[in-house]
């Protein structure tokens, strides 16, 4: 981990069971971490519909359902299932050699910096 | 002599009230009727005692004039302030 | 080969027929469809993003019903209700009395979408909306009915809209207008987009959290369950707005600007006092102003931007009113407590006042001296001096008291003349609502107009209370019997 690549460690890799999700604060932003088939995915923590915290929703068979209005997302890609024209904002994730899950906010990625 | 309702606002109260006045009421009498709903209830009693001025359309009305002489429409907006206080 | 869900959905939803024996304008008269000058084929672009098949709908709703019933049954055995804070109960009475019959009115609105909306896609969605709203009205009634045995005020869940209680008449005036009397396009913009998506969906989520914090798990669960239905039918506004922005953007702008202000005024009447005065201090998470800024304002700004609308011309004045208007409404409601069907909390004990000062830097200057006078009278044993002896004056647009939209020092006369008659308003914004469409408001007399016309007899406060349907068993009074005023040390 270097300070320059903007990846922030947020959890131990064995903190989540497969099929679980948890919310973390990264620089004041709520990030949702999902573990599916041994892989981690990180998204904006609030629903794009009306900003309700997604961690309060349900994760079932790889489908994430917001508790407030039942919007559904594919938890492996963030793509909207219903409605299909919505999507979760995705953050980059990597697991470090010492077993930490680290996240780089999409607003901090090199692609964002170039814009 | 006829019933003549006005929208009476005592300066400092947060709402004006429906005040059932009469065309024969003088401004002093009208002022007392408006103040009755506010003074000592929602605003403090003014230091000079219960004597008031009536303002209509930003103009002070002579205390002895009767409501009927002013040619107002029913529910006209009437402001009441302690006598000598600055215009609302 | 079986169709996949989306293809099946579209085939089924878009089933329509071409009229050959009748004029389509007679089948879908513009007065109900609201299509106006929008060309017929423009509605082909109308598309609802959140989709559900009828079979899935029935399955999911059935599961939800089971959930609500299970929680309700468990809690009614636990006697949870009897332990709730009485000030929290005022929020429940106010919410149920003020909204249950609005859900009932929404059934009619959604039924109108089913029949008259200008595209089969929208008519299909109206079927689900109609079923959703039926469920919401019935859930509220069932919940309230269970509680009748502990508190007769829950009767007002059903009764309120069949009385002339002044606050209910204000709510009714708005929803009669935008739900029952509006064409489909206006109803979608004013109700689905502005009221539901813009205001109540956010508020129900917050209210459910507050109810949970207050230990009212059953009600919290009910509110959350109702909320899950909203994604489907509250979305009717967005595709309608998208079509209007192509073909009649000015109409969209005006309908939304009017509905946003009128919704704000109702929120300043119902939600503001509930959040900043009725919710017990230790359970408050954010002030009404913070809630409005974080949720309502942010979301509305985003919608305006996404669809290319301008901010309402009154935006700065609206923001300013968030500092003052609901405090004035609360003070007025508490003062006129015999005209309410629930017991309001004054909410100005020394500790609560400290919280108000912190959240609203001008509160003390704007309203502190009025409460000080009230406190002095209570301490002197003169409660009658804290009760009304006449009516306020009401706004001809919002039907709310004049003075209830600002601080006392900002109070000014706003009026318009129309067809020889003078109309009065609580703000220059409400005056604008009237001036752009006077016919809509001119024939809807306020309680005060009725009083002056002699409809209310005898012409005094008891006569007005009887006319409003207020009976001794529900008549409002200070919920803590003025204990908060006695906490102040005599000066």
From TrEMBL, chain A:
Alphabetically ordered keywords of this record: 2Fe-2S, Iron, Iron-sulfur, Metal-binding, Monooxygenase, Oxidoreductase
Entry-linked InterPro entries: Rieske_2Fe-2S, Rieske_2Fe-2S_sf
The chain positions of domain Rieske read 7-102
**Residues passing through the membrane, by range:** none
Gene3D superfamilies per record: Rieske [2Fe-2S] iron-sulphur domain
Q: Which SUPFAM superfamilies match?
A: ISP domain
The protein's required cofactor(s) are namely: [2Fe-2S] cluster
Keyword ATP-binding tagged: no
Q: Which GO terms describe its molecular function?
A: 2 iron, 2 sulfur cluster binding; metal ion binding; monooxygenase activity; oxidoreductase activity, acting on paired donors, with incorporation or reduction of molecular oxygen
Family membership: Belongs to the bacterial ring-hydroxylating dioxygenase ferredoxin component family.
Q: What is this protein called?
A: Toluene 4-monooxygenase protein C
Species name: Pseudonocardia thermophila
From TrEMBL, chain B:
Organism expressing this protein natively: Pseudonocardia thermophila
Gene3D superfamilies registered for this protein in UniProt: TmoB-like (3.10.20.270)
Q: One Pfam family of this protein, by short name? A: TmoB
The source's superkingdom equals Bacteria
Q: What is this protein called?
A: Toluene 4-monooxygenase protein B
Q: Which UniProt keywords apply?
A: Monooxygenase, Oxidoreductase
Q: Which GO terms describe its molecular function?
A: monooxygenase activity
From TrEMBL, chain C:
What is the enzyme's class at the highest EC level?
A: oxidoreductase
The record's GO molecular-function terms, alphabetically, read: monooxygenase activity
Q: Name one Pfam family in it.
A: Phenol_Hydrox
Transmembrane stretches, start-end: none
Keyword Oxidoreductase (UniProt):
yes
According to the UniProt entry, what is the EC number of this protein? 1.14.13.227
Matching SUPFAM superfamilies: Ferritin-like
Please verify whether the record's keywords include Oxidoreductase: yes
**What keywords are assigned to this protein?**
Monooxygenase, Oxidoreductase
- Domain called YHS: residue spans: 412-444
Catalytic activity annotation: propane + NADH + O2 + H(+) = propan-2-ol + NAD(+) + H2O
Please identify the protein, giving its name as recorded: propane 2-monooxygenase
Q: Which organism is it from?
A: Pseudonocardia thermophila
């Amino acid at each position: 981990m270097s300070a320059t690549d903007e990846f922030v460690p947020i959890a131990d890799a064995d903190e989540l069971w497969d099929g679980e999700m948890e919310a973390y604060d990264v620089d004041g932003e709520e990030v949702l971490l999902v573990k599916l088939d041994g892989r981690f995915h990180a998204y904006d923590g609030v629903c794009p519909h009306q900003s309700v915290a997604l961690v309060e929703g349900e994760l079932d068979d790889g489908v994430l359902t917001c508790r407030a209005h039942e919007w559904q997302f594919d938890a492996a890609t963030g793509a909207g299932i219903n409605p299909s024209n919505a999507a979760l904002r995705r953050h980059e994730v990597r697991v470090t050699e010492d077993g930490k899950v680290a996240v780089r906010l999409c607003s901090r990625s090199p692609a964002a910096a170039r814009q | 002599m006829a019933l003549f309702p006005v929208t009476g606002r005592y300066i400092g109260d947060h709402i004006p009230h429906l005040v059932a006045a009469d065309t024969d009421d003088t401004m002093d009498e009208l002022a007392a009727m408006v103040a009755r709903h506010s003074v000592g209830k929602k605003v403090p009693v003014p230091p000079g005692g219960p004597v008031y001025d009536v303002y209509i359309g930003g103009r002070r009305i002579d205390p002895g004039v009767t409501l009927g002489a002013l040619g107002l429409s029913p529910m006209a907006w009437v402001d009441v302030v302690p006598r000598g206080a600055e215009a609302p | 080969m079986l169709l996949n869900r989306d293809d099946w959905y579209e085939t089924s939803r878009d089933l329509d027929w071409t009229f050959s024996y009748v004029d389509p304008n007679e089948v879908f008269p513009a007065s109900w469809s609201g299509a106006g000058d929008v060309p017929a084929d423009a509605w082909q672009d109308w598309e609802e993003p959140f989709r559900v098949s009828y079979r899935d709908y029935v399955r999911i709703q059935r599961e939800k019903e089971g959930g609500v019933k299970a929680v309700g049954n468990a809690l009614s055995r636990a006697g949870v209700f009897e332990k709730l804070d009485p000030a929290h109960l005022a929020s429940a009475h106010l919410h149920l009395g003020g909204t249950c019959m609005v859900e009932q009115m929404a059934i009619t609105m959604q039924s109108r979408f089913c029949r008259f909306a200008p595209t089969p896609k929208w008519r299909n969605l109206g079927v689900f909306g109609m079923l959703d709203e039926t469920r919401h009205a019935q859930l509220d009634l069932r919940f309230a009915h269970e509680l009748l045995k502990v508190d007769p005020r829950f009767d007002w869940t059903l009764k309120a809209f069949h009385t002339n209680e002044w606050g209910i008449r204000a709510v009714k005036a708005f929803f009669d207008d935008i739900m029952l009397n509006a064409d489909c396009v206006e109803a979608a913009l004013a109700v689905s987009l502005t009221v539901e998506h813009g205001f109540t969906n956010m508020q129900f989520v917050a209210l459910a959290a507050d109810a949970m914090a207050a230990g009212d798990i059953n009600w919290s669960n009910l509110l959350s369950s109702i909320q899950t239905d909203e994604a489907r039918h509250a979305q009717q506004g967005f595709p309608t707005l998208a079509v209007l922005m192509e073909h009649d953007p000015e109409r969209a702008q005006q309908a939304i600007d009017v509905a946003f202000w009128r919704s704000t005024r109702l929120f300043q009447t119902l939600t503001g006092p509930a959040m900043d005065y009725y919710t017990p201090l230790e359970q408050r998470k954010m002030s009404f102003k913070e809630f409005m800024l974080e949720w309502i304002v942010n979301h509305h700004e985003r919608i305006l931007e996404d669809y290319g609308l301008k901010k309402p011309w009154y935006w700065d004045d609206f923001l300013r009113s968030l500092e003052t208007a609901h405090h004035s409404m609360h003070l007025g409601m508490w003062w006129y407590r015999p005209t309410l069907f629930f017991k309001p909390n004054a909410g100005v004990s020394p500790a609560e006042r400290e919280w108000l000062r912190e959240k609203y830097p001008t509160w003390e200057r704007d309203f502190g001296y009025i409460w000080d006078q009230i406190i002095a009278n209570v301490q002197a044993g003169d409660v009658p001096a804290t009760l009304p002896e006449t009516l306020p004056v009401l706004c001809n647009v919002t039907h709310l008291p004049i003075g209830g939209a600002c601080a006392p020092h900002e109070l000014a006369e706003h009026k318009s003349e129309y067809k020889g008659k003078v109309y009065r308003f609580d703000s220059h914004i409400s005056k604008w609502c009237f001036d752009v469409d006077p016919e809509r408001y001119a024939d809807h007399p306020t309680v005060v107009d009725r009083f002056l016309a002699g409809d209310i007899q005898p012409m005094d406060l008891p006569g007005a209370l009887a006319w409003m349907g207020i009976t001794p068993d529900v008549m409002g009074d200070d919920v803590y019997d003025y204990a908060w005023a006695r906490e102040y040390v005599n000066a």
